[in-house]
## 1
Amino acid sequence: MDLDLIRRLSQPADTKVILCVLDGLGGVQGPRGRTELEEANTVHLDRMAEAGSLGRTLPVGHGITPGSGPGHIALFSYDPLEYEIGRGALETTGIGFELGPNDLAARGNLCDLDADGCITDRRAGRLPTEETTKVCEALRQIALPGVEVFVEPVQDQRFVLILRGEGLSAAISDSDPQREGVPPHEVAATSPEGERTADLVRQWVTRAHKILGTRERGNGTLLRGWSKRPDMPPFPDLWKLRAAAVTVYPMYRGVAKLCGMDSIEGAQDFQQQIDLVRKHWDDYDFFFLHYKYTDSAGEDGDFRSKVDAISEFDAMLPGLLDLEPNVVVVTGDHSTPATMAVHSWHPVPLLVWGDNVRRDHLHQFSEPNCAVGEIGTIPAKEVLPLAFAHAGRLAKYGA
Amino acid sequence: MDLDLIRRLSQPADTKVILCVLDGLGGVQGPRGRTELEEANTVHLDRMAEAGSLGRTLPVGHGITPGSGPGHIALFSYDPLEYEIGRGALETTGIGFELGPNDLAARGNLCDLDADGCITDRRAGRLPTEETTKVCEALRQIALPGVEVFVEPVQDQRFVLILRGEGLSAAISDSDPQREGVPPHEVAATSPEGERTADLVRQWVTRAHKILGTRERGNGTLLRGWSKRPDMPPFPDLWKLRAAAVTVYPMYRGVAKLCGMDSIEGAQDFQQQIDLVRKHWDDYDFFFLHYKYTDSAGEDGDFRSKVDAISEFDAMLPGLLDLEPNVVVVTGDHSTPATMAVHSWHPVPLLVWGDNVRRDHLHQFSEPNCAVGEIGTIPAKEVLPLAFAHAGRLAKYGA
């Protein structure tokens, strides 16, 4: 469904919709021939499956493994190939820095350079975060003509560099050659509109390396992934509703904010996320809840922990259902099979529960059932149109 | 998945992928209420189905019956509606003639003309191939300014005419009116860039008809389907791998070569194709194997022979699996139900076996099972992206 059509058909209603994203939910059969979701204790999810419809999402396309950015963008009803969050923007968003429309961000590494200026360690021996924080403070003394400059530590040797000002362009190259034994690249414009920005960045790099030159480790910088915030139509305007993100981790909060959602902050775990939803129940029509632990366990390759993370989510579900939402969607932003210990391309289980569902006589929320469920396998960006239809928030097309 | 995205995400890996195309694989229930695939002895395919995922391909679209060209183009991950192999190019490719980038090809018929120049038989009484071969030799004496000319017999009254030179254009009309009782059309440019080419072809036709004028049968020519080789990005560049086609019939070899694959030649049957794969196992990352006999039997309307062709393929499968490929795909380029005795639009059974598959608890490779399999019904051009994802050859999209 394209955004013009959404804009045209979306309508206000007195209904509440909750989107629960279990990060990396989808799995693959483990040692006992069953997936993480099949092994988990999902008594509440299974009850919802029985009363609801099952299906699967395809976040980007067949065979495409999505990062967290595109995985969420798609669930928020945007085309993840059209609205791409660059690495710089995503990293910046991930530390809670609010990117403005005139900001240009790069992901940075402190690195080690030898006497000839060649890179000897791209990560400066994984410099501790504390040390990187001090280096960032020192780098903040660099001023550039006509723009504001921000240098923010991320983790270990990683930092972000943000330039703020009119007319900045992402059409410039990386300084990071992504290998050692060569000097950093000189940043250059990749098209004419990048000329001025490239010149500013070269000035910054020269002065940064002068400041860092006396250090033993981390005497150089590597910059890559220059990007601005994607210029997406705000979610609340598109859908004519009040939308809130309730997350623990800044990255997911950041992506939701880039899409124009409010953020309700302060939760440290999923129970607290539910409490915040309850507290703000009257203030919003749509709540996005992000649950991280399924993905962390999957990425650790820890099958049992992922099973447990799903079971724990399930145990907390009644707290959400008690609020009597009209529609609840449970899905993931991508699969992270514990057997693979990375994100994967496998379609993601999807459960839509609430008003006007057509049931599919499936009694368990599992990958095999989702593959034959009522909803079918649909692009992730179609999930919210479907949920909002169930909530009476999409008008008829044509007379 | 569009080609830009493939080019961006594809990555080399130390894995082997085999694509087995059983021509015309898909069927429809025959006299005993089961399809050819259901009736066949598929003990090895069924074992692969059990350990792998099933699904179906849609070569071009719902209700669209593909020719062999688009059926294969799609399986090679190209959009068959974007990259169209014209009739002239396909016919030329089918006889093993290697079309260069400056070649323009037409499909030709020898026909019978009466004293007024009107067509009395579009096929010259299906002139024998030998006779057509001699006619082609005679026609080779026609030289045209600034271009090389090739005239090659195909079968019966069919031949191909190929012009080779700079600046030739397919923007010219057919001389074949596709009916009798009228003279052949004069070839004309359909847009300005075709003017010079049309003029060359008119010269060729005039001189050809002068040479053939004294013959009793086959005293005229009909030309249609002017086309150049499709300008597709080479498969090995797109996927960053070494690709080989191992086929018996020149048409399929030709389509693979048009896509930039190498051809390993010399096999007369499928067992020899397997032997060639084994011999060249270290030289390539991807092997395309074409199996013709399912389609020939289907086109003959011979249900039993198609069942046997599938069983024979199945019996040879262990020879491929012994090579320990990472991923094996078994599918067809289209359906050819024996009950119809022609190509059809029915979705085609698909089996993906290998690393990181999510199993679907289906134990037989059959049309009904494929309709409810894990993979779903996907465009044929998404099959290799999926297979290469399983083989670790597609990087993550977005951070």
## 2
Amino acid sequence: MTASKLTVEGFADLLATHMPQVGKAGIRVAAMGEGTCTMRVEPSGDMIRAGGTLSGPSMFALADLALYGAVLSRIGAVPLAVTSQMSINFLRKPPVKPMVAEARLLRLGKRSAYGEILIFSEGEADPVAHATGSYAIPAQG
Amino acid sequence: MTASKLTVEGFADLLATHMPQVGKAGIRVAAMGEGTCTMRVEPSGDMIRAGGTLSGPSMFALADLALYGAVLSRIGAVPLAVTSQMSINFLRKPPVKPMVAEARLLRLGKRSAYGEILIFSEGEADPVAHATGSYAIPAQG
Amino acid sequence: MTASKLTVEGFADLLATHMPQVGKAGIRVAAMGEGTCTMRVEPSGDMIRAGGTLSGPSMFALADLALYGAVLSRIGAVPLAVTSQMSINFLRKPPVKPMVAEARLLRLGKRSAYGEILIFSEGEADPVAHATGSYAIPAQG
Amino acid sequence: MTASKLTVEGFADLLATHMPQVGKAGIRVAAMGEGTCTMRVEPSGDMIRAGGTLSGPSMFALADLALYGAVLSRIGAVPLAVTSQMSINFLRKPPVKPMVAEARLLRLGKRSAYGEILIFSEGEADPVAHATGSYAIPAQG
């Protein structure tokens, strides 16, 4: 009913198999719900920018994965879903601390899905970035 | 007049100083014009995805840098310009070969700039991605 | 504190003075909060499309006004704030019935504001459209 | 080959039949090419805003129609293609004079199309707005 079709462990396994670079980058699945997914990243290496902030592409990557999780929470483990469009607004400079991205689906069709993502510095109330994105879902055999 | 305020070497130096991870990721400045910039990336490591394609975040990062170069081509070396918004559409799956991102400014104001970026697999006519983005330009002292 | 700097009546007056076409199009201010605004439209004339649905530009216009109201709820009656960017995703075909657009600010800076808007067919739970947008705020004299 | 599958007259007829409000708003088809379309609008009535400029929603509507034309130039007269996403950046305030929107497709798939649109005040070199958008193409019977 209102449960995710993919557990936190299920999504973590799928990522470890198909996108091993995700775990190496310090990104973890934090929570899965029905149409929602929260990802968390521990900053390291190339994510950290001069001046003590985190890179835009690292926020983009986190948002993209959280939305992917939100899609899979509704359709189950479909590794071939691919991002077709993503738009991100950078709202505040994040300090060098863990970030969490909270995604929720706003529409799930047969061939595409659309949702939004808020990214926070862990423990803060105001988002550091807001993104929206679409996934293309392959036709089922 | 119609020349870039920053040479290829000047932009490369600025990146080496402020964003050393760019060079490590195989990204190079290929060309600078007045309001234009072309970046090139040699795929490696974490950019490469299962199935023989290149990751979305790596295309995002390349587009972001190319637009940054296009902004600096008009205002000179201002390291504090920051991306405020970026939107990317993934049009075709890129094979595992070098990509080039060609950015051009469409508007330069005192406090912000806006432009677009086409990303190609090197030597191909049809773009693999199209992006638009805005940069915030800090007030000059 | 947590009240709007502009009442429903205040925003309605500003629109009647500066944008009289809004009222003629059947658009009304429904609610104002701190950083939020709800607009409602009664469909008529050119908004209605063949096949019994409402036009995309009419949803765009409604989203734009709701975000404008959300900006003014925080800064007061500043008629010169102008939209700099707006992105809209059409999620479901709206039937020919009233629509409401609910906007909320996600960031308010000195010179710009950013927020998102959900548009619903009145009384429905699933949004017909989702938009994000930025406003440029003129420097105060 | 490299010709439009729909002539200027063909697209004008389709609009007159399915979207009569377009002509009433002063919007005309100016040119069709392979994957391109130019629309022109003569400003009137509700498009004109206080201060002597043109409304954002009127630019959005013009961009949307130009992209629709660019899609139909490749697939022929398919009235059911619908906008799924549109993003617009307002670059300069247009004066109260005719505007032209030039759209070109960047990708045409079986079920969706993506392109970009530049809007100019007639006779000016710098665009007043830039937009990108996606159309969903219905499955053929």
